[in-house]
Write a structure and sequence with these properties.
About 30% of the residues are buried. α3 packs antiparallel against α4 (about 80-95), α4 (about 80-95) runs antiparallel to α5 (about 100-115) and α4 (about 80-95) packs across α7. Strands 2-3-1-4-5 form a five-stranded parallel β-sheet, sandwiched between helices. It has one domain: Rossmann fold (3-Layer(aba) Sandwich). It has helices at about 15-25, 40-45, 45-70, 80-95, 100-115, 130-140, 150-165, 185-205; strands at about 1-5, 25-30, 75-80, 120-125, 170-175. It contains eight helices and five strands, in the order βαβααβααβααβα.
Length: about 200
C-alpha cells in the first residue's frame, strides 16, 4: 500500500501525512526541506539556482522512495516525484527561470528514473485557493518562504489543477482544503479519514 499526498506550497501535505500515519499506523516519508542546501538560495535568486534545486529534489525523492518501498509495506508519502516534473520544473522554464537546455536535461532524467518506479496506489490531492495557501505559508513562518512571489504560487496552482485533471496513473482523491481544517478540527479530519477509507476499501474490491 503506497499512498501519496500532492499539493501546492502551503496546502498542508506534511500535516496531513503526519495525521494519517498516526491514524492508520502507516510508515511516513517526508519532504525534508531543512537539509536542502539550495532552497534559501533559490528563493533569493530563482534563475541562478532553479536547475540545481530541481535536480536535488529529483535525486533525493527518488532515492527516498526506493529505500522506503524496500523497507515498508504500508507507506504514506509527502509530495510525489511527479510534482517536480509536471509542476515545478515546467513552471520555472515557462517563467524564464530555467534555461531550455537545463529543462530538457531534467525531463530526460526524470523519465529515466520514473521508469523504475510504480505509481502510488492512491494519490490524494489537496486543492486550495491562493488566499488559503498564502495564509498557511504565513502562519508557519518559514524564513526562506518569506520572499515567495504571489505570481509564483498562482502559476503553480494552475499547473496543479491541469495536472490533476489529466491524472491517469491510478486512483485519485481530491480534498478541498478551503472548506476543511483537518489540522485543528477533529471533525474535519474525520471527514478526510472517511473519504480515504472509502478509497482504500475500493482498492481491494
Amino acid at each position: 500500500m503506497h499512498i501519496a499526498i500532492a499539493g501546492n506550497i502551503g496546502s498542508g501535505k506534511t500535516t496531513l501525512t503526519e495525521l494519517l500515519a498516526k491514524q492508520f499506523k502507516w510508515n511516513s516519508m517526508f519532504e525534508q526541506d531543512d537539509d536542502n542546501p539550495y532552497l534559501a538560495n533559490f528563493y533569493d535568486d530563482m534563475r541562478r539556482w532553479s536547475f540545481n534545486l530541481q535536480i536535488y529534489f529529483l535525486n533525493k525523492r527518488f532515492r527516498n522512495l526506493i529505500e522506503h518501498r524496500k523497507l515498508y509495506n504500508k507507506l504514506i508519502q509527502d509530495r510525489t516525484l511527479y510534482e517536480d516534473a509536471y509542476i515545478f520544473a515546467p513552471n520555472l522554464h515557462a517563467m524564464g527561470l530555467m534555461a531550455t537546455k537545463d529543462y530538457e536535461t531534467y525531463i530526460s532524467l526524470f523519465e529515466l528514473l520514473n521508469s523504475f518506479i510504480e505509481p502510488p496506489d492512491l494519490l490524494i490531492y489537496l486543492k486550495a485557493s491562493i488566499p488559503s495557501l498564502i495564509r498557511n505559508i504565513q502562519k508557519r513562518g518559514r524564513e526562506y518562504e518569506s520572499s515567495i512571489r504571489l505570481d509564483y504560487i498562482a502559476s503553480l496552482n494552475e499547473r496543479y489543477d491541469r495536472w490533476i485533471e489529466n491524472y491517469k496513473e491510478g486512483k485519485l482523491l481530491i480534498i478541498d482544503i478551503d472548506n476543511l481544517d483537518f489540522s485543528s478540527n477533529k471533525s474535519d479530519l474525520g471527514v478526510v479519514i472517511e473519504k480515504i477509507n472509502a478509497e482504500i476499501n475500493g482498492l481491494f474490491q
